[in-house]
Amino acid sequence: MKDLTYKTLKEAGYHGYLLEDGKEKVIQFGEGNFLRGFVDDFIDIMNEKSGFDAKVAVVQPIPEGRACMLNNQEGLYTLYLRGREGNEIKDERRIISCISRGIDPYTEFDSFLDLAANDDIEFIISNTTEAGIIYDETCSLQDEPPASFPAKLTRLLYERFMRSSGGKGYIILSCELIDDNGKYLKDAVLKHSKDWELGSEFREWIHEENIFCSTLVDRIVTGYPSESAEKLHRENGYKDDFLDTAEYFGLWVIEGPDDIGRRIPFDKAGLPVIVTDDHKPYKIRKVRILNGAHTSMVPVALLYGETIVRDSMQNEDIGRFVRDLITEEVIPTIPLCGDQLNNFARDVFDRFENPFIDHKLEDISLNSISKWTARVKPALKDFVFEYDILPVHIVFSFAALIAFYKKGNIRDSKEVIEFFEKAGKYDDNKELLEDFMGNEKFFGEDLREIKSFGELTQQYLDQIEQMGMKEALRLFLKEQNNGMD
Ligand SMILES: NC(=O)c1ccc[n+]([C@@H]2O[C@H](COP(=O)([O-])OP(=O)(O)OC[C@H]3O[C@@H](n4cnc5c(N)ncnc54)[C@H](O)[C@@H]3O)[C@@H](O)[C@H]2O)c1
Ligand SMILES: O=P(O)(O)OC[C@@H](O)[C@@H](O)[C@H](O)[C@H](O)CO
Question: CA-CA 20 to 30 A from 352: which of 132, 251, 311, 362?
Answer without folding.
Answer: 132
